[in-house]
């Protein structure tokens, strides 16, 4: 039986790759404008770019980094849910909620970057993740 929870997982993976491309397309021209020659860089890190580039040019890459953080828990819990055969119905809807909220978070962070809006979206997505985790625990421990 197909597990519907896998669809939002694939969408979030694809979105993460879109954000990476977006970050590259914004950051490279900003680096050129700042006189940074990437061919000559050695051992630099993200904080170096934060000091050298305008904040708005860094917002998409900051969001990409955020997509490497909490969503890793989402991927793991979605995998557990799919493996236990409980990835349809409410769990699929919670997963879609999580992914939708994370995409909205990305759009806010990479464009106008209001922290209070990001915080609300992050909080709501975290509620979805907590619910998914509880459902995964119920499936694994009370099968």
Automatic annotation (TrEMBL):
Name of a matching Pfam family: MAPEG
UniProt KW Transcription keyword: no
rRNA-binding among keywords: no
Gene Ontology cellular component annotations, sorted alphabetically: membrane
Source organism per UniProt: Sphingomonas guangdongensis
Name of the protein in question: MAPEG family protein
Keywords attached to this entry: Membrane, Transmembrane, Transmembrane helix
Spans traversing the lipid bilayer: 6-26, 73-96, 116-141
Record localization: Membrane
Main location: membrane
SUPFAM superfamilies cross-referenced by the UniProt entry: MAPEG domain-like (SSF161084)
């Amino acid at each position: 039986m197909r597990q519907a929870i896998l669809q939002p997982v694939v969408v979030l993976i694809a979105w993460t790759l879109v954000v990476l491309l977006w970050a590259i397309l914004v950051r490279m021209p900003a680096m050129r404008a700042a006189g940074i020659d990437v061919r000559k860089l050695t051992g630099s890190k993200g904080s170096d770019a934060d000091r050298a580039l305008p904040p708005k040019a860094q917002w998409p890459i900051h969001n990409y980094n955020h997509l490497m953080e909490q969503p890793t828990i989402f991927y793991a819990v979605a995998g557990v849910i799919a493996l236990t055969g409980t990835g349809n119905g409410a769990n699929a809807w919670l997963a879609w909620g999580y992914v939708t909220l994370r995409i909205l978070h990305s759009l806010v962070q990479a464009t106008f970057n209001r922290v209070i809006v990001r915080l609300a979206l992050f909080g709501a997505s975290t509620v979805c993740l907590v619910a998914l985790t509880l459902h995964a625990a119920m499936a694994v421990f009370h099968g």
